[in-house]
Predict the 3D structure of the following.
Amino acid sequence: MINAFMVCCKKDERLVRLNAVLDRLVLTDEIKADIRTNPKEFLTDLDEVLAADTDDLLILVDKKHVLPSTYAPTDLVPVENTSYMKTNRPGHSLRKPVYEGLKTMCKAAKADGYTMLISSTYRSYQYQDGLYKRYIKIYGEEATAKFSAKPGTSQHQLGVVIDFGNVEDSFAETDESKWLEENAEKYGFALSFPKGYEDVTGFKWECWQYRYIGLQAIAMQRKWFGDINQYLHEFVDMWKKIDNVQ
Ligand SMILES: [Zn+2]
């Protein structure tokens, strides 16, 4: 009797928490309606994603969610130049699980006839600071803010994203980019800044930047968040913040 009562209250608490999270987020009406119509199924999927995220890959970083200057991942590993994956210069590094995912994906691309070029990976706060200041000198503050991240607001500081190819819009026309569009999600990678979502992500479309989140999180992003990575991260971030709703 007591157990049944406790289970019932725990369930209610989670529903209250879910509604509180949805009330605070923008998302879209469609996404919210889907979740509110099937909260049990959603929470089951969410539990699986959070349980699978043992490497703590799901961290929201954007213009409103800023990393401290002292933040650096502790599991960075060097990225090697190989036959199946080229680097544009020495000195690249990524978080270990991200690098493992990247190697698997690039081997699959190579098997299909494409050699991926790695152009940018982990960037420290200090590196981003220097980059941003250089851009401001050339392009001015307003223009720079649209395509480059202020220090602390770049996903590169997390060590979980990769810039592929020439890091220009023309990359989208290449076979390598088309392969990524078609296949990256099969290997746990999501496009950070999709076309048409500048208002949501805070950054203009970047066909070259992919973020590793793992297969479970990709499945959740596709099923519940319109396949938009920013929405998934905003949700997870708020869910973790509101862990005790009265
Ligand atoms: Zn990038």
Remarks:
- The radius of gyration is 19 Å.
